[in-house]
Amino acid sequence: MVQFAMDGRVLQLRKPGESNVPASRTEQVLSGLHMAEFGGTAVRSLYFLCGLAGTAMMGSGAILFMIKRRQKALDEFEARTAQVYRVIEGLNVGCVAGGAVACIGYFWANRLIPVDLVHRADWEVRTFFAIWLTALVHAFVRTPMRAWIEQLGTLAILCLFLPVINLLTTGDHLFAEIARGDRESAGVELVAIIFGLGAAWTTCLVRRRVSQARCRPHEASRNASAGE
Questions:
Q1: Which of 54, 70, 85, 140 is most open to solvent, judged by the fewest CB atoms within 10 Å of its CB?
Q2: CA gap 99, 133 in Å, rounded
Q3: What b-and-e string marks burial along 38-49, b requiring 16 or more CB atoms within 10 Å of the CB?
């Protein structure tokens, strides 16, 4: 880019990719920090782990807040307390589980959307937000516990079958990626499998807790009948 004075003199010559504009330089610095373009694999791994820790902290905090408020049974919103709690529960499911489903759904879209489609990257982003919106709606249509079970189960399936859909659409697979030293592709699939196993385990825990909660009233009624 060349900047000229009124008389035609060259004031500044900027090569492609170079910028002295403060806003552009700020964007370059923030982009470099966000993408961890320094420090190599060690820094990127640290970024990833810290991101996971921060996400877990916010997600668990939102869930524990809801549990704590409900146990105290405070009428802090008076007649609308139950409705407000229901909105919070729905948002928790839609943002925590639904957000994760949307993320893995983005990877599925990356493998299923035709390569020659115009504005393909935009369609991947649209798919992400469409899945997330669907998850939010689902969280309010279903009861909170059913929504947790169904969305976590969906997350587990999508994560565990990501390597399968990758094999079917690209012909590539995890062992081939490891053999040729493609750490980035192999890392994506390994992390997806780990998250899928974690989501499946969490789904089983939630289902078990729901089953136990349903059994308690029946056991209490049987004990009362036996006592009489």
A1: 54
A2: 9
A3: eeeeeeeeeeee
CB atoms within 10 A of CB 146: 15
Phi, then psi, of 3 in degrees rounded to 5: -110, 130
CA distances from 1 to 7, 19, 38 (A): 18, 9, 28
What's the pLDDT band for 136 if we cut at 50, 70, 90?
very high
Residues 147, 201 contacting (CB under 8 angstroms): no
- Cα separation, 43 vs 213, in Å, equals 44
Whole-model pTM?
0.76
Which of 21, 47, 22 has its CA nearest to residue 34?
A: 47
Tokens standing for 196? Answer: 């899928």
Q: Is 91 exposed, middle or buried (0-12, 13-18, 19+ CB in 10 A)?
A: middle
pLDDT value at residue 19:
56
Q: How confident is the model at residue 224 (pLDDT cuts 50, 70, 90)?
A: very low
